Recover the amino acids of this structure.
């Protein structure tokens, strides 16, 4: 099922998301003894991460944090997603270090992706070709429609077997590692957090069309729920849509 919610401010989105985190987390812990999440980088979730660190979520010992994607840079780099998530959330939340699964940067992006795939397979005790059922994956959308580090027209979009893949973005020689579509589409819950006027056009296109050139449109979990959390700015072009319902089958 897919739901779109629009909020008046970033603070309201964060409060809603904290409540949602609590509900999903408690349910997961009650049912399966642990709460598994994969978090994204980018600017939009920063306010949420900071608020969550200060919130009354008490179950960090049963919460396991993975990353949705990472840039091929050391953790000390200002562009490292792990660094951003660590500084805004993990350092302040008191989560046991063994519950954190950053995407470790190895000699090449390919090796880093292979290593992360193995860590995921080991954690979920996956048989070959199976995907984990992550309780919550928090995603953003780039202006070009990328989500996690699944960019338009990149090979990683076609990865069917490995949980993680390397990504090369030729124009800027930017290299990344990302969770793959089978993982996103096997999640129990996907939450897209998309803020700001610059995202209005891509939000409209993602929600309006089954457009295979928009990676975010390809996120359509087999059994999971998809929630779009928008602010009034990113939702500003949605009024012209009759329905918001088209994911790619
Ligand atoms: C990253 C991401 C990426 C991000 C979008 C949206 O590493 O940048 O994980 O997919 O979520 O680019 O970014 P903003 O939240 O900054 O708009």
């Amino acid at each position: 099922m897919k739901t779109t919610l629009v909020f008046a401010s970033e603070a309201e989105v964060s409060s809603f998301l904290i409540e949602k985190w609590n509900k999903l987390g408690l349910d997961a812990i009650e049912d399966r003894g642990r709460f598994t999440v994969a978090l994204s980088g980018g600017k939009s979730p920063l306010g949420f991460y900071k608020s969550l660190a200060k919130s009354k979520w008490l179950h960090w010992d049963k919460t396991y944090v993975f990353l949705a994607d990472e840039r091929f840079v050391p953790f000390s780099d200002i562009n490292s997603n792990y660094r951003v998530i660590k500084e805004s959330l993990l350092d302040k939340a008191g989560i046991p270090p063994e519950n954190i699964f950053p995407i470790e940067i190895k000699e090449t992006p390919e090796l880093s992706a292979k290593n992360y795939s193995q860590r995921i397979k080991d954690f979920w005790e996956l048989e070959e070709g199976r995907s984990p059922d992550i309780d919550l994956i928090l995603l953003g959308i780039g202006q070009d429609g990328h989500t996690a580090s699944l960019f338009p027209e990149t090979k990683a979009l076609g990865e069917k077997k490995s949980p993680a893949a390397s990504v090369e973005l030729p124009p800027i020689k930017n290299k990344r590692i990302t969770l793959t579509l089978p993982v996103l589409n096997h999640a129990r819950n996907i939450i897209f957090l998309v803020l700001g006027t610059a995202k209005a056009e891509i939000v409209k296109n993602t929600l309006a069309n089954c457009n295979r050139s928009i990676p975010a449109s390809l996120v359509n979990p087999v059994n999971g729920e998809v929630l779009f959390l928008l602010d009034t700015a990113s939702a500003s072009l949605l009024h012209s849509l009759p329905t918001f319902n088209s994911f790619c089958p």
Observations:
- The chain has a mean pLDDT of 93.
- The pocket of 6-phosphogluconic acid is lined by residues 40-44, 68-69, 81, 140-142, 146-148 (CB under 6 Å).
